[in-house]
Amino acid sequence: MLSARRAVQTLPTYHPPLAARTGLRLDFNENTLGCSPKVAEKLQEISRNALACYPERGSVEAQVAAFLGRSTDEVLLTNGVDEAIHLLCETYLEPGDEVLIVVPTFAMYEIYARATGATVLSIPAGADFVFPEDAVRAAISPRTRLIAVANPNNPTGTVVSTRFLLELAKAAPHAALLVDEAYFEFHGESVMSHVGTIDNLFVARTFSKAYGLAGLRVGILAGERSQLTMVRRVSSPYNVNAAALACLPEAIADTEYLERYVAEAIESRKRLEQFFAAEKIPYWPSRANFVLARFGELRVPFVQAMKDRGILVRDRNSDYGCEGCVRITAGTAAQTDLLFSATTDVLRELRVGEPR
Fold first, then answer.
1. Which of 347, 339, 264, 262 lies closest to 298 in space, CA to CA?
2. What DSSP assignment string belongs to 19-51?
3. Could you tell me what percentage of the chain is helix, strand and coil, using 3-state DSSP and rounding each to the nearest 5?
4. How do residues 159-175 score in pLDDT, each as one tens digit?
5. Which CA distances in Å does 222 have to 84, 85, 176, 189, 256?
6. How far, in Å, CA of 136 to CA of 175, rounded?
7. How many CB atoms are closer than 10 A to CB 148?
8. pTM above 0.90?
């Protein structure tokens, strides 16, 4: 009987709750307004003939590289950040190699790494989810081949200093260092300028979050040109679809739309943190477009009651160190007003009988 590889049989599963996501979507850190109107217009212009042809990513890849301030051979378009992670694992990992991650973090680092037969060392974050610099340094060994760091991190919104990331790349020259900047636009700090000067540094970005293109599945992986040549060997030449390639130039050109949305989301993030503080709900200051808060025993009824009111929030109880936690996306000002109104009502109902 045909059997999957042992590494695949023992993989953890990642099943995001994507079914029946109707209402105000504050559960997946998506752009809550949608993509730029210019992207929507471009979608309407795509011809039947264009969809009948295999996509050619070269010219768009060059435009994106220029947008990022990199040379064309330092940037690879990918099918979202997920594929960027997958490609790095396929390029550099052998069975028995070690991968370092700090938990809690994005689940796909572990899944793609373990699928190769590599061993994943999960290092617990420090108090208040602070990145454990000393523990990560101590975990580096000759077997370390990949270190994956989300910056800002998901689901906590915490960040790692550029100083330490560069130090980490130097401390483990035999390992690929992936800095996943999926939430860069809401943070504003990046190690992208160091790509090409540090042989083992890779940076991933996505257009799913701030740009509102999650449905088109497009991201980038940037790295030193000779290393990226190896990564290209395991990448399909048709990994990014024609619709995404047609729309991406419109998305990056509409800087006014992006800046306006990001500014509004950041302001809503601040308001959300202030709301939690006023309600005496523990939370962690975030540099992404969401805030993680600990609702404790109220978590399950809170998530359900919000859903009943047409607002989706994300239960993160199963993540390491996130017992009782809920993650809420920061949307527009109007959406945040709706969120606060519903949350205030729900908390009032759930707290009936609690001591004040």
1. 347
2. TT--SEE-SS---SS-S-HHHHHHHHH--HHHH
3. 45, 15, 40
4. 999 999 999 999 999 99
5. 9, 12, 12, 16, 25
6. 13
7. 26
8. yes
